[in-house]
Write a structure and sequence with these properties.
five-stranded mixed sheet, alpha+beta, 3 helices, about 200 residues
Length: about 200
């Protein structure tokens, strides 16, 4: 639900979004429509189900609107719901990781990253490159810095019996370019054209 409902004599406006795009859809709900008895609870962040007809909108700035034939409240959101119409700082969004994908900022970022990732994959696929997943967990420290994130299932002194760990030896999250280049060289023995798509 968006920042409505806005009520007028004989009808109300709702603004809904199903996550398929950034723009909201305006819904016109006439008085007497089934479900309007709960309309006061249709606040920002609420989960709703709406049935109706998609019709051309007479209002400027939007091509379509929905004329509701039935509305239903599936889940309430009270005034403490943090994603209101007002702007919210990115530092605040980091504290509500379970809700930030609903924000316009993260919605735009995820869509742009998705399109960019698709374009990069398509570029290499059309040129017969083999997409390689290099290991995320490694026992190697190719750069010798020793400042790697340890991955372990052990408790207490994890260096006392490293052979008792899941992999039988100390292992780390692989964030080193040198390790990834080594893995790619090993694959290059078999495949001529390779490319990785690695998290940073």
């Amino acid at each position: 639900m968006g920042p409505y409902p806005a009520r007028f004599e004989g009808f109300s406006f709702l603004e809904v979004n199903d996550g398929s795009c950034l723009a909201n859809l305006q819904v016109v709900v006439d008085a007497g429509t089934p479900g309007t008895e709960d309309l006061s609870h249709f606040t920002t962040g609420a989960s709703v189900s709406i049935e109706g007809d998609l019709v051309p909108s007479p209002a400027q700035g939007q091509k379509w609107e929905m004329r509701a034939t039935r509305v239903a409240l599936l889940g309430k959101a009270d005034a403490s719901y943090p994603l209101q119409k007002k702007a919210i700082r990115r530092s605040s969004l980091r504290t509500i990781a379970h809700l930030r994908p609903r924000s316009n900022l993260y919605g735009a970022v995820f869509r742009v990253r998705s399109k960019l990732a698709y374009a990069v994959h398509q570029f290499f696929q059309e040129r017969d490159f083999v997409y390689v997943h290099t290991p995320i967990i490694t026992a190697s420290d190719c750069e010798g810095a020793g400042e790697m994130f340890r991955v372990t299932t052990l408790k207490g002194n994890i260096d006392e019996k490293p052979q008792a760990d899941f992999f039988g030896k100390p292992t780390y999250l692989d964030g080193q370019r040198a390790t990834r280049r080594r893995d790619l060289r090993l694959c290059a023995v078999q495949h001529l054209h390779l490319w990785p798509y690695l998290p940073r």
